[in-house]
Design brief:
Layout lengths: L39 H5 L22
Length: 66
């Protein structure tokens, strides 16, 4: 079972987010260790989870009759 993916981690710059291991940035086990994978909040900023393919559908108000 995969670990749950944190939406707003406290210090995302200290962890590699490339797999379920969540290795420290200076002790990566997988890959070649050249660079870490950034958390989406670092790339897209706040609200990264509210757009894209998994975005919640916007609530539309029913049309009012005049």
């Amino acid at each position: 079972m995969a670990k749950p993916f944190p939406i707003r981690p406290a210090r995302p710059e200290l962890i590699c987010w490339g797999c379920d291991r969540y290795c420290a940035h200076d002790a990566m086990v997988c890959g070649n260790g050249a660079d870490r994978t950034q958390h989406p909040i670092e790339t897209f900023g706040e609200g990264w989870d509210t757009f894209g393919l998994n975005a919640p559908k916007p609530q539309q108000d029913p049309p009012t009759q005049a």
